[in-house]
């Protein structure tokens, strides 16, 4: 495993752990728990998608797994935004998490683009 892949595995796992910690701090209201469970599912699956992409047997499988991770990141952002807009969690508490989600999206998109470009040549 190269250094960049190792760093991204650590980073996606750290992201999942941050999501878990956020979930444990949510109020016990029904709406917070419903949104929280959706957030927990999508936010923790990003790293699993990356791990599957890393172990893929083909470029097509790699792209498919990373695109699945992208969908989960987009969904995670949606649930975080709902927590803020429903005034369940203040935006300032979630700004770093949103920033990390957007950075991971950029990395995943660039990786998919690189592999797709390789096949266009």
Automatic annotation (TrEMBL):
- Gene3D superfamilies linked: 23S rRNA-intervening sequence (1.20.1440.60)
Instruction: Report the transmembrane regions from the record.
Output: none
Q: Does the keyword Membrane apply?
A: no
Q: Which InterPro entries match?
A: 23S_rRNA-intervening_sequence, 23S_rRNA_IVS_sf
Q: Does the keyword Transcription regulation apply?
A: no
Q: What are the entry keywords?
A: Plasmid
Q: Which NCBIfam families match?
A: four helix bundle protein
What is this protein identified as?
Four helix bundle protein
Q: Which organism is it from?
A: Candidatus Chlorohelix allophototropha
